[in-house]
Amino acid sequence: MPHPVFDEVIHEPHRLRICAFLVPTAGRDFGEVREAMELSDSALSKHLKALSARGYTRLERAARGGRQVTTVILTPAGRDALCGHVAELQRMARIVGADRRVTSARR
């Protein structure tokens, strides 16, 4: 179980979705990520730059079929950070849920 840690970089909604989208894969084509996130090239690049600055993602460029392909990869550090962030959100949700049950019981 990852240590619950709130991560402000991952918490940004697009970045959270990007990381979650990358989890089940070894990497995804930049265009596939762009389409799934419904972002422009420049907006996706901006988010990936923020994630890469923390070591959470990396880009690999390779020639495939006569063209350059960029693959977006979630690093082990990124996976750990995402899992820790999700664990912290779950911990916070349990606190809120427990408080709601107590508040409802008082009424």
Structure characterization notes:
The protein has 107 residues and is an alpha+beta fold. The protein has a single domain (8-101), classed as Winged helix-like DNA-binding domain superfamily/Winged helix DNA-binding domain (Arc Repressor Mutant, subunit A, Orthogonal Bundle), CATH 1.10.10.10. The protein contains five helices and three strands. The protein has helices at 8-11, 13-22, 30-37, 41-53, 76-106, and strands at residues 28-29, 57-64, 67-74. Strands 1-3-2 form a three-stranded antiparallel beta sheet. The N and C termini lie far apart (36 Å).
List the helices and strands and how they pair.
Layout: H1 8-11, H2 13-22, E1 28-29, H3 30-37, H4 41-53, E2 57-64, E3 67-74, H5 76-106
Antiparallel strand pairs: 1-3, 2-3
Structural class: alpha+beta
- For the record, the CATH architecture stands as Orthogonal Bundle
- The low-pLDDT segments are none
Quick one: CATH class?
Mainly Alpha
N-to-C order of helices and strands: HHEHHEEH
* Tally of individual domains: 1
InterPro entries: WH-like_DNA-bd_sf, WH_DNA-bd_dom, WH_DNA-bd_sf
Pfam families: HTH_34
Organism: Phycicoccus endophyticus
Domain Winged helix DNA-binding: 15-92
